[in-house]
Amino acid sequence: MPGDIPTNGAPKTLADLKTLLQDDIKVKVAGIDVDGVLRGKFMSKEKFLGAASSDGFGFCSVIFGWDIHDAVYSKELLISNRANGYRDVVASIDLSTYRRIPWENNVALFLVSFLDPDTKEPLCVCPRGVIKQAMEKAEDMGLQCLAGAEYEYFNFKETPDSVSEKKFTDLQPLTAGMHGYSLLRPQLNMEYFNDIFDESYKFGIDIEGHHTETGPGVFETALGYQPALRMADNAILFKFLVKSIGMKRGVIPSFMAKPWGNLPGCSGHIHVSLRDKNGRNAFAVSDEELESGGREGAANDDTKYMSQVGEWFLAGVLDGLPDIMPALVPTINGYKRLSGGEAFWAPNAVTYGYDSRAASIRIISPPSVPQSATRLEVRVPGADMNAYFALSAIFGCGLRGVQKQLKLVGVPIRKLTLEDKRNGKVKMLPLSLEAATQTMMLPGSIAREVLGDGFVDHFGGTREHEVKLWNEAVTNWEVERYLELA
User: 373 with 426: CB under 8 angstroms?
Assistant: First the structure.
């Protein structure tokens, strides 16, 4: 069935695993931290097989106690802290994630999920554990979560050494000028451009589209639709792949949301839908409704070719959107992408609309696509998102809308104006990480309802740390502006 998890020859038993690895001497394992960074290591085959045949292996909990640059968080958090000596958590190997890394001599790779060493339950902020909880909630409702992701990313003719020497200034883009959907520009870096697509295929990551986006050295890649966990795995591994290929080619790809102040930022648009027990798109209207011009009782013309379940899901995402912003936009820089609003197609308000790229939630349905392709595109996240948390938050809010049968409020964006934002007719999203984190961590927030108090308290604490570092930093902008004239 389209969208099902490809097996990639994944072993189902320990005997299958031993056969699969019979010619290997080592295996690579990796888990994901709260910033979406892969943290892993090589293991000997013997050690790996022993861990696979038991409950897993110990992994230092400090990966949940330090930030993206390995600095210990400025406050004690739930999972990893000084009081317990950064004890080990359990890394549980997921055999279904097996794949070979083609640019690393085809070494075998497996992903792990992190469990509490006492209860053996998923850690409340383990990215793979969090998304599994959202999928289990859907399954209890007789539904399956499906998703896709699109990444935009700048590419620079730089190396880790060169950017360090330049102090991350005056970076040279891979190509000059604004060349969206260009057939000419990729030929300047054809090996790198093609390697991304070809190595992704070998690595078990389906790509639907791969092209230049407007901006100097910008690519956009759309990843193939998958069940939500597989999609999140593919999204995080795609970044790893692009960065690895880039290092071999003397290129640094950047998934930073807004690397240039005067240019559009890098999005991480997410497409979502649900599938029912019969394998049918739960967001799609019936054949009869399609032929009769839409669903009777729809909120408006923009939703008339979506099912009632789809409309409830949309209402749930819109209702929760302001409260889950740190899960969609987790960095200081990410909110600068949103500050330009519709001028850069980066929506910053609680809005929706049929096939509207100016809306936070774009409805994709007939007549522009077949019924089977009916879905929602959440356009708020940037390329710096942690796909596991973003998908978990979106599905959590959407399923809450279905459970509560929430009524869709507000009007489609085509009926709104900029003045509507100014006069409060449209609810704005938090436009800084600090404001977004405060909203998420409020008692009784929708984020707490759909993601849990443990997640919100720990992840929120990591975002407070990020804000603290930003507030303490003295930037080049400040020096240039105030050094002489203040």
Answer: no
